[in-house]
Amino acid sequence: xxxxxxxxxxxxxxxxxxxxxxxxxxxxxxxxxxxxxxxVGWLVDKFGSRPxxxxxxxxxxxxxxxxxxxxxxxxxxxxxxGIVSVGKTAGLGQTLMATVNxxxxxxxxxxxxxxxxxxxxxxxxxxxxxxxxxxxxxxxxTLQYTGIFIVLLTLPVAWIIRSKPExxxxxxxxxxxxxxxxxSPDPGKPQQTPEQDFTVRQAMHTSTFWLxxxxxxxxxxxxxxxxxxxxxILQWKxxxxxxxxxxASIMFFLAIPLRFLLxxxxxxxSSRKLLFWGMxxxxxxxxxxxxxxxxxxxxxFMLGLAIVEGITSVNWIMLGDYFGRSRFASLMGIMSVxxxxxxxxxxxxxxxxxxxxxxxxxxxITFAPMFVASAILFSLxxxxxxPAQSPFANRG
Length: 396
What we know:
Elements: H1 8-15, H2 19-47, H3 50-67, H4 73-91, H5 93-103, H6 108-137, H7 139-160, H8 200-204, H9 207-228, H10 230-236, H11 241-268, H12 271-291, H13 294-323, H14 328-357, H15 361-380
Helix pairs in contact: 1-2, 2-4, 2-14, 3-4, 3-7, 4-5, 5-6, 5-14, 6-7, 6-11, 6-13, 9-13, 9-14, 9-15, 10-11, 11-13, 12-13, 12-15
């Protein structure tokens, strides 16, 4: 999705549509993700991630191929929201994170950090490649070749991946399943961390879940709007297409080590404190772009945004640590209903501000306090105690 923002201006100018109309395409896709998130989460928890990755990858790839041939704004919306976004929701972020959460407990921080680092690495690599494609081939051919690549990549990935370690006769972290009769573990072997598995209902009855949820809502709503409008924002500050691509790529490259290092740190230190400081530094970045003219303001902005992108993995590591493996995807899906409402509104708001004022100043002034609010909410979310078991504990 970070790479697709590079298509924002080429598609907008080619079809003769406004910033608000183009932002609406992204917002409707997020709304679809919000509605589909709980269903995808339930399907992943029920049937595993493997079939969802297969379906999602094919849908996203085929959708991009079709999108390359869209001739009207209506077709653009229908294909991107109804096919590409459906595939992305089914087979990518939520599903892949749930897979990693199933496979790891003791090494969860490292594993999830590695996955989230790969997401950031993809953005850093894909943005300049897409830029070259758009400049030399046009946005339509670039989309078509991207779709073909995704389809071809999906087939071997879906063949190789396994939804959970139990499918291969293993426990999380690759540990063997010990015979039930073995009473005293070998002290020389690494011990499996005891699992704390909440049901959906139990998790939703904790204040921690809601603090995390609204922390996610404020974080991703503001971040998504900035990422969607990233290239127009950089052009508003005086950069041309090539310069904007360079700065965006640098930001995504910085997010690569940050996602890994901050994610691993989240497994060893307080996730709440890391999120608190990370989100506040993101607010400093937005205010820096608004208040400081020229390249220094842009550099502060990109550093702050890289930190916000880097801290992303910590919030999902926190969710897995707090509530366990068995309902991770379902809890992510429920969160997606709420945060995708914000994701629907925020890019449209930013587009309307740009269309009516010719500036992104009000956007930056609005979203900086949202980063601060997210920091506070995460800092208040303490690990909940596992509730006492009841006859209904296995429901939800």
